[in-house]
Protein 1
Amino acid sequence: MSNETPFLSVVIPAYNEASRLPATLAQVMEYLQAQNYRSEVIVVDDGSSDATANLAEQVAGVRVLRRDHRGKGFAVRAGALAARGMYVLLCDADLAVPISEWEKLYAQLRVGHDVVIGSREGLGASREGEPWYRHVMGRVFNRIIQSVALKGINDTQCGFKAMSRPVAHDLFRRVRIYGDNAPIVQGAAVTAYDVELLFLARRYGYRICEVPVQWQYGTETKVNIVRDSLRNLRDVLTVRMNDLRGRYH
C-alpha cells in the first residue's frame, strides 16, 4: 500500500438529501478525522433535483460523483468502483447506523471474512423508532429472499456493509440488475441491489458475516411501501432468473 492509498473509503449514495446530508457528513468526517489512518468519503449523487451535490462539494475532503438518476443500486456501484481505499464501507445518507459501528465490521474483516454486513436482527442488534408494520414487512420480505435466493442471511437490506476493495470491485463488476445499463428511473428508487450483491458473493465463494448493529429508523424515509415492495420483489426474482439462465457464470 502506498502512502497515498486510503485505508478506508466510505461510500454514501444520496438522492435529494439536502436536508440530511450535511449533518451526516459532519458526523462521518468528525469520526474519520479522529482515526489514525487515511480515509476518503465518496458521495454519489443519484441525479438529485435539489442541492445535494452542491452541499456535499462544499465539505472539505469529500469527493462527489454526479450520476444520472438510476436508483440506489446504481449509485452504490458507482461509488464502490471509484473507491481507492483498502476497505470499502457502504452507508446510507441518513446514517441510520452510526459510523462508529464500522469498527464491528472491521473486526470481522480482520479475522478473514470477505463481506461483512450490518444486521438489524439477532442478539446485540437494536432497531429504534421503527413502526411495527415496517418491521413485519421487512421480515416477510426476508422470508421471500431466503426462500428464493439467500438462505441463512437474516438481514440483506441494512445499508451498512463493508468489504475489501478487491472484493468490492469484483462483485460490483459482476452485478447485472443495476450495472452500466440500468435504466433512468422516476422518483426515489429503493432497490434490492443488496440481494444480487450477496448472491454473487456466496456464488463466488466469498465468506459472508452478519454483525448486529444499532439502527435508527428515519422519519424522512423515501420508501414507498407499494412501489418499492414490488420493485424489490422483482429484483429478487430477477436474481433467481439470471442464475437459472447462467448469467452469473
Note: The chain has a mean pLDDT of 94.
Protein 2
Amino acid sequence: MVDVPATGIAEVDVAVAGREGITAAVESLRSDGVVILRRAVDPALLASVSDMVIDWHERFLSGAVHNYSLGEETATRIPDIWQDAFTEPRELQGFRKWNVAGMDHRFIPLVDCEPLYSVIHGFIGPDLGVTKTQMLVLPPGCLDSPFLHTDAGSLADVVEHMDASPVMVSAQVFLTDLPSPGMGNFTCVPGSHRKRYPWSPDNPTRSQLGGPLGEDIPMDIRRQAIVRAGDVAVFIHSLWHGATSNASPVPRRSLILSYAKSFVRPYDYESTPDVVLRHGTSRQRLLFGDLGAWAFRPGCFYHYPDDYLKMLASDPVVGP
C-alpha cells in the first residue's frame, strides 16, 4: 500500500480558517466522507497525549499490560488477520488499546478540544456522545496485515443519506509527523461512505472480523494522507479506511475517537468511566453518558433538556 496516491483527500487549516473552515470541513465530510484538519490540536494538549501514548506503549513492551484490551471489560474481538501478531515479538506488534479515557485522565481534554469539537458538533448536531477512545502504535517493521474496513461493527452496514443528520463519525489524531508515504499513513477511499459494506459480494454475514477484506478495491482510488502531528483525519463511520504498512524507521502513533448520536451504544465502555467522572468537566462527563439525576430514567436518551444541549454546544470559533 506504499504505492497508494498521497493526494486527493480534502483538507482544511482550521487553525486559521475560523468559522468558514468549520463549514468547509463539514461540507467535505458530506461529499467525500473524510477531511483532514490541519493543526486541529493545541500544542500543549498534543504534547500531553503524545507522552501518554509513549508511556502506555512502553508498559506494553515491558509486559506490564496486554495488547488490545484482552482480559479487560471492553471490546476484545480481534480480526483473524491479526491473530498471528500475538506470536511475534512485542516490538513488532501493532499496539492497540481500547477505552483509553477510562485508563488515563490525560486523554479526556481531547474529546471536546477546539476546533476539532466544532467540526464534530457541526456535522452530527447537538445530540452526541463519545462512543470510543483508542490509542494505536504501528512500530517500524510492524507485522500486522494492513486492510481496509469501516467502523462501528454492525452499524457499518448502515449507509446514510447525506441530507440527513449523520449517526456516527470518527477522528484520528496524529501524534507523529508522516511526511512520506508508507509510514503507517491513514488510507481511505474518498466517497466510499456511500457504498454499502462489503465491497465484495461473498460475505453473507457482513462480518469485518474474518479478513483480509477490501482486497478488491483498486489501488488507484485509494488515498493516503501526508500529515504532521496535530493534524486530524475526520471521517464518517461507513468510509473505507485503514493504514499503510510502516516501512519507516520511526513508530507511527495516533489516537482515535468516535462520536455518535446519544442512542448509539458505546463501543468500549458500558457506563461513564470512573476516570472521566473524577477528572472530566460537566460537558466531558455528559459526552460519556453521565446524565446526572436523569440517569436510567425512561426517555433520557430521547429528549435532552435544554441545559444539556447548551452544555454540548461547541465553543465560539474565532475567525470569519
Note: The chain has a mean pLDDT of 86.
Protein 3
Amino acid sequence: MKTSAQIIGLPIISIADGGQIGTVKLLIINPEKGSVDFLTIEQEDVAFGLKAIPFKKIVGIGEFAVTVEDDRAVIDLAEIPIANQLVNKQIRIKNTKAMTRKGELLGEVTEFFINDETGEIMGIHLQTEGRQAILSSEWVLTYGKDILIVSETAPDSLLDDADMLAEKIEAPIHEANEAEAETAAIEEIKEQNALKALREKQMELLQGKRVKKDIFDLNGHILIKAGTILTAEHIVKAQTEGPSVMIDLSMNVDA
C-alpha cells in the first residue's frame, strides 16, 4: 500500500532497457471505480500532449521507482477518450472536504492510500476536529471534485492506524493462498485415490493369469518371464515401473 505522495515524483523506469521514461506527475482517479486508472508522465523532451501510463501496465511501484515493461506502456491521453474524460473531471481527493450524506462536515482529506498492485483506493487520511484519522474507502460514497461524500456511519468507523488498511490487502491474499493450498491438497488426495483404485483394478484383472512373453523393466532387464503365472508381487513390481510396463503386461497375458 502506498500514499499518493509516495508515488508522485517517482522516476518511471523501462525494464527492457533500464532507461528512465519520465517521472510521475499526477494520479488520474476513476471516481466510479474508486481507483487510480492512469499515471500521467512528466517528460523533459516532450513539449506537447499529455502522456500517461495505464495502471494495469505497471509492473511495480517501489520505494525508488515505478517500473513498466518498456516504453510501449506510455499512451497519449488525447487518443484515449475514457482517459481524457477522467482528466477533465479533475478528481483530486487530497485537500478536499469529507462530508456525510446528511451534510455534516467530517474533516479535510490530507492524503489517500492506494493498493499498489491494483490501483484501488484503500482509504483516506483525514484531519478532523481534534484528531487525525483514517477512513476506509468502503465508507466513501462519492469522489467529487471538491467534496467526498461519506456514509453517515463514517464518523464511528474512523481508524487510528493506516496499518489496519494494509491488513485489508493482505487478508484476501492470505485467504486466497490458503484456498489454493486446500484445493491443491484435495486434488492430490483425489489423484492418490484414483491411482489406488486403478492399481486395485489391475490386480483384480491380472492376478492368476499367465504371461505370454517376457516383460522388461525400464532398464531393459527381464522383469517377468514368459509363462509366469502372475501373483500380487509380480503385478506390484510392474506397477512400480510405471504405466508403459503395465500396458505391456496387460496386453500380453492369456485371456
Note: The chain has a mean pLDDT of 88.
Protein 4
Amino acid sequence: MSSQYDSFAHTYRRLGAIDVRRYVDQFSFMKVLGDIEGKSILDVGCGTGVITRVLKQRGARRVVGLDISEGMLEAARCEEGKSPLGVEYVQRDLIDAGAVGPFDIVTACFVLPHAASPEQLFAMCKGVSEALSPGGRFVALQPNDGFAVNDPEFYRAYGLRASVEGRLEDAAPMTVNVSSGDIEITILTQYWTRAGYEAALRRAGLVDIQWRSPEVSPEGIAAHGEQFWSNYRARPYAMLLECTKAPAPR
C-alpha cells in the first residue's frame, strides 16, 4: 500500500517542531485526552509516530500506530528502533481498524478529511467505532471549517504559510499547499463541514460529539506573550473533536 505521504514522510515530521504545532496543536490534543495512564490507544494515521511516542511516554499501557503509508511507518519504526518504547506499528486502512481492536481510546490527527465521499467518511468513522470498546473515546485533531482559507499569510506569524484551492462544501476536493522555512508540502484532501462529520459519526454509532477550540500552552505564552496568539485564537486552522462509542445495550 502507498499514499501521497510516502514521498515526504521525513519532511512532514519536521513540521511537528514549529511553534503552533508544539504550543497549540499537541498541547490541546493532550489536554483533551487527559489522564491516559493504563489505557490502550490506537492512533490512526499515526504518520511518523510523534503522537504515539508521547502517548506511551504519558503512561498508556498499549499504543498501536496505524497508517496506510509505508514511508510514514518506516520513519516511525526507525525512531522506535533508536529509542524503544514498546509502540507497535501496523500498516492498514482505517476502515479495517476493528481488526486490531478493541481499544479504550482511538486518536487521529487530520485523518478524516481524506474521505472522498459521504460513504467513505462513514466507512472511516465505522472503522473508528469498530476499533473502540463500548464507551470508548475518539479524540481527533480536525481542520476548522472556518479557517482563514482566503488569506495565505494569515498563519505566517505562527510558522506556517498555507494556500488552499477548492470549493467549501462537503466532499469537495482541496489542494493544500503548506510551507514553513525550507519545507514545502502539497496535500490533496477534501473539505468537510462539522455537520458533515457529525452525520457520519452518529451513523457509525459515535455519540456525545463535542468540538473544542485549541488552547495555547503556558510555554507558548511565555515564549511569545498573550497578544501574539490573539489572531490564531480568533481563527484557528484546527479544532478538537471528541465523542464516544455508544455503550452496548443491556
Note: The longest strand covers residues 132-143.
